[in-house]
C-alpha cells in the first residue's frame, strides 16, 4: 500500500515564502511570436530570467482544449483506474510521489515518453483508455504543434546569438532520437489548506527544481500556482494565462550557452479551492548527444564552466538526484 504522509509534510518552510516586492515590481517578459523583431527580447529573457511568456503562438486552441478535456477526464476517474497506469517507472501515472528519491507534492501526474518506437502503442495510455488511439492522437497533435513553435523559438535564439547555423538547438529536438517527454500535472484542490492559508502557509504542489533538458514549454489552465525564483532570492508568482505558453531554459541549454542563459528554479504551490492542470513538453536531445558550451559562443579567453557530458550521463545523474539538488554542480569545472 502507498503510505499517506500527513498534510504538514507538504507545507513550505516559512523562510521560503513568496515575497513580491511591491515597490519594484518585476514582470515576466512577454514575447510576441508574430513579431520576429522580438528575438532580441527573447535572448534577454533567457539571460535575465531563463523564463518568459509567449503570445500569438499559432498552436491551435482546438488541440489544447481537446487534450485538456481528455486529461481532466482521466484525473477525475476512479483512483483504481488511474493506478492501472502506475506506478511511474519513470513513465506512467504518479500520485504525490515524485521521482525515485522520496520527493512528494500535492499533485497527480502522467509522464509520457515521446521517443517514438514505430508501431508500438504507448504502454501508459493503453492501460487506462478504452480508446487509446484517440488519447494518443490528442497528445500527438498537441505535441507536434508545440514542438514546431519551440523549434521556431530555438531558431530565433540561435539567430540572435549569431550562431553559424540557426538549427544548432532545434536540430536536437527534431532528431528522431530526441529524448523528449510530455507531462500532465493535476493539482487537486486541498480544502484542508484553507484554514492554514490564513496564517500564510503554503502547500507544496511540486517542489523547487530546475529542468534538466534543453527547454520546457508549459500551458496551464487559469489556476495560479507556478512560481519562479528571481535573482533577488524572492519567489515570484506567475499569473496564469491559459491562452499563452510559459517557457523555461533547461540545464542543458544553460551549459550549451556556457551560463549565458539561466535554467530557472521554479515550483508550484497548491490551491485550496481550484484545481490546476498543466501540460509540459520537455525538449531533450538524443541520449548520445554531447552537451558542452558551444565554442562559437565563447570569447577567445573564456573558460568552459562545464565538463562535457552526454545527455544520457546527465539524465542518469538527474534521475538519481532529489528535486531541489543542484544537478549541474558535479559537472562544473573547478
Ligand atoms: C523535472 C523535470 C521533468 O518533470 C522530469 C522530472 C523527473 C521525474 O519526474 O521523474 C525528476 C525531476 C524532473 C528532476 C530530478 C529527479 C527526476 C524527478 C526527480 C526527483 C521528467 C525530468 O526530466 O526531471
Automatic annotation (TrEMBL):
Enzyme Commission numbers on file: 1.14.11.13
Residue ranges of domain Fe2OG dioxygenase in the record: 177-285
Coiled-coil zones: none
Catalytic activity: gibberellin A1 + 2-oxoglutarate + O2 = gibberellin A8 + succinate + CO2
Keywords: Dioxygenase, Iron, Metal-binding, Oxidoreductase
The protein's annotated pathway: Hormone biosynthesis; Plant hormone biosynthesis; gibberellin biosynthesis
GO molecular function, one term: gibberellin 2-beta-dioxygenase activity
Enzyme's top EC category: oxidoreductase
Protein family membership: Belongs to the iron/ascorbate-dependent oxidoreductase family. GA2OX subfamily.
The protein's role, per its UniProt record: Catalyzes the 2-beta-hydroxylation of several biologically active gibberellins, leading to the homeostatic regulation of their endogenous level. Catabolism of gibberellins (GAs) plays a central role in plant development. Converts GA9/GA20 to GA51/GA29 and GA4/GA1 to GA34/GA8.
Protein name, UniProt field: gibberellin 2beta-dioxygenase
Lineage: Eukaryota, Viridiplantae, Streptophyta, Embryophyta, Tracheophyta
Interval of the full protein contained in this chain: 65 to 398 of 404
Amino acid at each position: 500500500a502507498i503510505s499517506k504522509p500527513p498534510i504538514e509534510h507538504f507545507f513550505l518552510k516559512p523562510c521560503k515564502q513568496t515575497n513580491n516586492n511591491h515597490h519594484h515590481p518585476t514582470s515576466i517578459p512577454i514575447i510576441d511570436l508574430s513579431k520576429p523583431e522580438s528575438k532580441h527580447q527573447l535572448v534577454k529573457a533567457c539571460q535575465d530570467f531563463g523564463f518568459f511568456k509567449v503570445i500569438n503562438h499559432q498552436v491551435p486552441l482546438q488541440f489544447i482544449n481537446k487534450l485538456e478535456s481528455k486529461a481532466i477526464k482521466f484525473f477525475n476517474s476512479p483512483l483504481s483506474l488511474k493506478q492501472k497506469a502506475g506506478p511511474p517507472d519513470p513513465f506512467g501515472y504518479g500520485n504525490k510521489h515524485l521521482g525515485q528519491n522520496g520527493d512528494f507534492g500535492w499533485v497527480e501526474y502522467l509522464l509520457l515518453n515521446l521517443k517514438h518506437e514505430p508501431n508500438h502503442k504507448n504502454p501508459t495510455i493503453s492501460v487506462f483508455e478504452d480508446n487509446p488511439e484517440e488519447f494518443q492522437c490528442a497528445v500527438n497533435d498537441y505535441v507536434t504543434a508545440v514542438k514546431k513553435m519551440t523549434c521556431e523559438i530555438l531558431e530565433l535564439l540561435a539567430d540572435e546569438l549569431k550562431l553559424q547555423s540557426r538549427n544548432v538547438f532545434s536540430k536536437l529536438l527534431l532528431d528522431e532520437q530526441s529524448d523528449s517527454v510530455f507531462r500532465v500535472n493535476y493539482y487537486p484542490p486541498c480544502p484542508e489548506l484553507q484554514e492554514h492559508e490564513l496564517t500564510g502557509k503554503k502547500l507544496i504542489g511540486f517542489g523547487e527544481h530546475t529542468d534538466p533538458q534543453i527547454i520546457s514549454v508549459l500551458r496551464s489552465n487559469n489556476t495560479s500556482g507556478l512560481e519562479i525564483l528571481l535573482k533577488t532570492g524572492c519567489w515570484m508568482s506567475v499569473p496564469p494565462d491559459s491562452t499563452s505558453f510559459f517557457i523555461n531554459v533547461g540545464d542543458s541549454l544553460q551549459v550549451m550557452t556556457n551560463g549565458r542563459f539561466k535554467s530557472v528554479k521554479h515550483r508550484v504551490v497548491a490551491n485550496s479551492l481550484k484545481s490546476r492542470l498543466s501540460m509540459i513538453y520537455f525538449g531533450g536531445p538524443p541520449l548520445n548527444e554531447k552537451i558542452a558550451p558551444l565554442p562559437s559562443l565563447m570569447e577567445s579567453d573564456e573558460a568552459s564552466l562545464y565538463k562535457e557530458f552526454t545527455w544520457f550521463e546527465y539524465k542518469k545523474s538527474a534521475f538519481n538526484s532529489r528535486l531541489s539538488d543542484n544537478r549541474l554542480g558535479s559537472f562544473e569545472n573547478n
